[in-house]
Amino acid sequence: MALLFPTLAVIASTASAPISEQQEVETIEVKGVRSRLIESGALKDDISKTELLSEDYIKNTQSSSLADAIKNAIGIRVSNECAMCGAKRIMINGLKGEHTNVLVDGIPMHTMISGFYGMDSVAAAGIGRIEIARGAGASLTAPEAIGGTVNLVTSDPSEEKVELDIAAGSNGYRLVSGMATGISEDGRTKAILIGQYDNKDQFDGDKNGVSENPALTNQSLTLSLSHDIDYLNNIRIRLNQTQSEVFGGPVLGDTATSISATLASVNLGEADSLFEGNDVRNRYVGNAWETAEWVKTDREEASISWLHEISSRLNVTSSLAYVDHTQDSFYESTDYYAEDTMFYTSVRFNYDLNDKHLLTFGFDQRKEEMRSASAALEGTENYVSDSFDYDTTGLYIQDTWLPSDYFEASAAIRLDQIKADFVDASKPGVEIDKTIISPRVDMRYFHNETLTSRLSFGQGYRAPLSFFESDHGILDSGKGFLVEVNQPERSKSATYSLSYEEETLTVTASAAHTKVDHLATLSENDEGTPLLTQLTETAAVTAIDISANYQVTDDLTIYAIAEQYHYDDSFKASFGIAPIEKRASISSDLHFKSWEIISSATWVASRDLTEYGYEGYNDTQAQFAKPTTAESYITVDMKVSKAMSETFTLYFGASNLFDYNQAEDMGSPLMFDAEGGYDVVYIHGPLRGRMAYAGLTYEF
Taking every annotated instance into account, which residue ranges of this chain make up the domain TonB-dependent receptor plug (predicted)? Predict the structure, then answer.
């Protein structure tokens, strides 16, 4: 696990400080229209509780991806959904990964399917901060965020420089990232070019020839431009191209020679057995393809945003975005190809009505088209393609009201027309064609100079579309797939937080309760065919957490969090992988002369796996049952850095320092069901062991 720095130092300041304190230009004296409006409060968004992960936090956790950066943030869990392909889902407030919406500079840039294999490929380089808003309807521009939103804010250059970060370590870990910034002489034009390459090899904790965590290689290139056309107009352009390749299952150099040879080994047919003695605890003896998963994705993003100050009281931001996500994959002999294209348009006004009211209103439109194909499945009798069209058009208005210096409230309402259509020939008509109203209310009250309360209520929705990847029903692909979806998921949530802040101590406690109707789940019919359907019961989850940040001295800061999630039986039944129920951590940041030592320990409580439907065996004869209790465990991380000069730093460290991993210490995630069927999702612990590394950063 990455080093845990819950953003406690900034949580309370976010609760009590206006947005103008969060963004400012440090060295450029001529401030552009965007900076000027932010500092005046004219671009204010909302007052809901938001956690911030700073650029320093991202670097200190040795994060190479979005999934690395946020996996230990309070209220966040990054769930590993498969031991072979390593699909990551970002869960907020205990909700599912598909209930989280990822934004880039406030614009929704992730398609339905990119949430499955996109989180490990979003480069950490160049992210200025990560904003996490929890709760349904957490963003005016992302009502589908039933759990919340994660907004990646690109670094805002304040000087011309080049930053390099180069690291290498165990398990094939490699990281090379660079960021170059440029600013025109008049300060009106800023440019930032970001590139990153990172790699991790497969991890096989029990040395049986099958990895529990896949090899992952990413490379990305991003260009961001900001130009003040004049005193009243600013334009921003962002371009990104990302490539990612994942390979899991037979270990390269052990039970597999290469990826291409593994995919071609389908021609060998099925082996007599997969493991010696037909037991997953023994050596793998099957053909390489029989436990192999390979996923290659190519992703292109483009966005443009124009900010125009109409008057001192009215401004408008117009945005366009395009995303193309292409996936080519292989799952135990089954091929799957998908291309998901999204167009997004938004016009947003901010109107300073008077000194008590700020109005935000506008509309947005999203058109998404996903087309998939599988040669192995198209001849299956019960197969229904997961290709879909998804269109939404929304109108919204929000009033931020400041009746006094101690109380602030915002009330917002969205009206959305949504159409979700599975386009397979066997699914005539439009599955979902609804007009949805989603209200939201946020309140903040300053009890005194140190104590602040926040209370939020909201509704959200999500159209349950892509399922092929979501629950890995692909492992039963010989039986086909069926779809029975006709309602959007609908949620209601309430969140309360109480923050205490003084000079050296910050404490924030919060509670959130969310109910979801028509929750999508993967089931099966009487013939055993995987079926995408929806729960008839309302599912609910309650999340409670507390965080503390104590500055012991000028050189030592200690952080701590504790969190607990309670799921009702309906919600538990919908999970494919058992979520964390209780987690606690303590971290420290120590500065000593030119040294910095960052350490953390994270504890995860035990769980009853039978409550989440776990049942499996180590052998095909169902004689050796797998454990039905997930043991509690602790992981420790550490990073030490030494500043050799103002521009050159050396560092070394390790994540999961004591090498605690499920396969070696708790039992393999590989399993057989009662009928002898093979699966790879008996997951309840860390799937990657220790990763030691050393590196350097250089700035010029």
Answer: 49-149
